[in-house]
Design goal:
Layout: H1 2-57, H2 62-73, H3 84-107, H4 109-113, H5 115-150, H6 154-160
Length: about 180
């Protein structure tokens, strides 16, 4: 009788531990999804600011306006289910548009002097910093989540429930040499 109670108690403790670890893994996975969503929100805001800049370009260079408008219309949203690769792809598109606008501003000094341009560039720079912070938060959340999925004994529960490792957002080496968008 006592051995049966001990076995039942051990099984109950094991089940409670299993549930506890599963809940911890779900929480960590939700944090990574939330962090990715924040990146999407910030990128969307940057796209909106860049769209405003592109509208300013319309009176300066129709061809560039059409080209950049087409790039902006091809954007896709980042949400909690997006992968690190999808977020990086959007980041690359944003950088290409921002770089092209900076080059055009150099060609048209009156564009750089435009108050709307300066305000939009301040917004773009602000959103750029917010995306950078959101990327750091995402990578921190991924670190915590991946640690849970890889360390024993939690990794056993993670494999049973198919919690897989998440990818980090990588810093683009080319961004370190990116031209400043400040006026």
């Amino acid at each position: 009788m006592i051995s049966t109670i001990i076995i039942v108690a051990a099984i109950a403790l094991l089940v409670l531990w299993f549930i506890s670890v599963q809940r911890k893994l779900v929480g960590a996975e939700e944090l990574t999804g939330n962090a990715m969503s924040q990146i999407g929100v910030q990128q969307s805001s940057r796209w909106d600011a860049l769209t405003g800049l592109v509208e300013l370009l319309k009176s300066y260079n129709e061809h560039e306006y059409n080209t950049l408008r087409d790039v902006i219309s091809a954007r896709s949203g980042i949400n909690s289910g997006s992968s690190a690769e999808e977020a990086q792809e959007q980041e690359d598109k944003l950088s290409a548009v921002a770089t092209r606008i900076a080059v055009l501003a150099e060609q048209y000094p009156s564009l750089k002097a435009d108050a709307g341009y300066r305000q939009a560039m301040d917004s773009v720079n602000s959103y750029e910093n917010q995306v950078r912070m959101s990327r750091m938060v995402y990578n921190d959340a991924v670190t915590r989540y991946n640690r849970l999925t890889r360390q024993l004994p939690d990794s056993i529960v993670a494999s049973v429930f198919h919690f897989t490792e998440k990818q980090y957002l990588k810093e683009d080496a080319a961004k370190k040499n990116m031209p400043s968008l400040k006026i």
